[in-house]
Amino acid sequence: LTTTSTLDSVIEARWVIPVEPSGKVLHQHAVVIRDKHILEIIPIHEAREKYKKAPTHQLPSHALIPGLINAHGHAPMTLLRGLADDLPLMSWLNDHIWPAERRWVSEQFVRDGTTLAIAEMLLSGTTTFVDMYFYPDVVAQCAQEQKIRTQVSSPIIQFPSAWAADESEYVHKALQFNDDYRNQELIYPAFGPHAPYSVSDDALTHVATLAEEMDIPIHMHVHETAQEISDSIATFGKRPLQRLGDLGVLSPRFQAVHAVDLDENDFTLLRESGAGVVHCPKSNMKLASGFCPVDRLHKEQIRVALGTDGASSNNALNMLEEIRTAALMAKAVNRDASTLPAADALKMATLDAANILGLGDEIGSIEPGKRADLTALNFERPIRPAIYDPISHLVYSANDESVSHVWVNGQMLLENRRLTLMDLETLSKKVADWQAKIDTAHRQQQLDFEST
Ligand SMILES: [Zn+2]
What 3-state class would DSSP assign to 121? Predict the structure, then answer.
């Protein structure tokens, strides 16, 4: 007889999809949690014998999956969602987003926007997110308050903001942030140089050296549009990835966000450096940036994660939508329905992402010893469908309304679609206040623009 630790809890599920091995589905299994970690995965009838006294969650019409990993975003931008749509990237940034950010970004903006983003992500099954935004310390505080796992990438950009005046101050603040947070639970500091076109050679070289010394990731937008590449050739005489390679920035710690436009040499640079790619299919489609060649990257053994990007270019922070869009887009681009099967698409948003983040030993699959970061989906809400393949149902049919429970580090953060730690009423009031302020100012700005 096994002694039941007081910390044990048991989750019984109709289906457990562990992701490792990929494509496997366990029927009527239980996941046992002990002290924030997954202890074992055994049939329900065995768990009922072995852990008689442990608190048990019964999920009889649910699939239990590893918590989803949103590998790229700008959480506070939830407050700018829908402010400017249907515009090309550079005019969207230059004429709308960056002016709005210059005017509004503050500690409080980042706090309220990040909390809203975390609510949306938990409600759609995300347990880890990667962020790149001003006031990374505030993003980290929000993540810790809400108990969600986060890679916080300190921004580095040539332009002044409320957070820092110039590149050296951004780097200095990134180092300070790392000192403050690198040993704190749930928070993983990284460098977030914005993009090749907005960071200097000197700053990139410095960041590459620091990231290697500190062994932390570099998270960066790269090859998002064709114009970015032609501008780089005009300015530097080479494509952005080649420039990053020459500056020593590429390594297994490098997370290349977007990677929409890749030539043969770019594939070689990514493969030989061991860098990972973060694919944001909905953002790339909405900004008409193009199509990340996921299938080719996989054939080159280059890992690819998935991200939503910010709420202004998506406009949802819903990883289920991202997984589905990635699977559909890859097929359409290849004109081959066998491209990126459902299990592979799910793996991108879980284990592949964990490995790119350097967290492959901690999260990304349901395996003994890993952190208990778990998401449950009730497939019978609102009706019971015919389900022949739960992975297919998850990827091609399920929506965020079916996400019922979420655990991070064994702590339940979503219980039957109720956020356990969050005061939604207060949050809603704050969001409404921001909307009123930003809307009034934006309308005035458009009127001023039209009258000139
Ligand atoms: Zn982005």
Answer: helix
Q: What is residue 169's three-state secondary structure?
A: helix
- How do beta strands 149-156 and 187-193 pair? parallel
Give the pairing of strands 403-408 and 374-378: antiparallel
How many CB atoms are closer than 10 A to CB 58?
Answer: 12
Q: How far is the CA of 310 from the centre of ligand 1 (A)?
A: 6
User: What's the Cα-to-Cα distance from 16 to each of 26, 248, 357, 443, rounded to whole Å?
Assistant: 5, 42, 24, 50
Q: Quote the ligand 1 centre to 283 CA distance (angstroms).
A: 8
Could you tell me the CA-to-CA distances from 231 to 226, 263, 363 in Å, in that order?
9, 16, 39
**Who's near 213: CB < 8 A, 6+ residues apart?**
none
- For 289-340, what is each residue's pLDDT tens digit? 999 999 999 999 999 999 999 999 999 999 999 999 999 999 999 999 999 9
Q: How far apart are CA 381 and CA 397, in angstroms?
A: 12
Token match 């076109």: residue?
A: 197
Spacing of C-alpha 385 from chain mean position = 29
What is the DSSP-derived secondary structure letter of residue 317?
-
The Cα 395–Cα 43 span in angstroms is: 25
Q: How far apart are the first and last CA of the chain?
A: 81
Retrieve residue 83's tokens: 């402010």
pLDDT one-digit tens code per residue, 386-406: 999 999 999 999 999 999 999
Length of the chain: 452
Distance (angstroms) between ligand 1 centre and the Cα of 312 equals 10
Tell how strand 56-66 and strand 411-415 pair up: unpaired
Distance in Å, CA 305 to ligand 1 centroid: 14
8 A C-beta contact, residue 53 and residue 4: yes
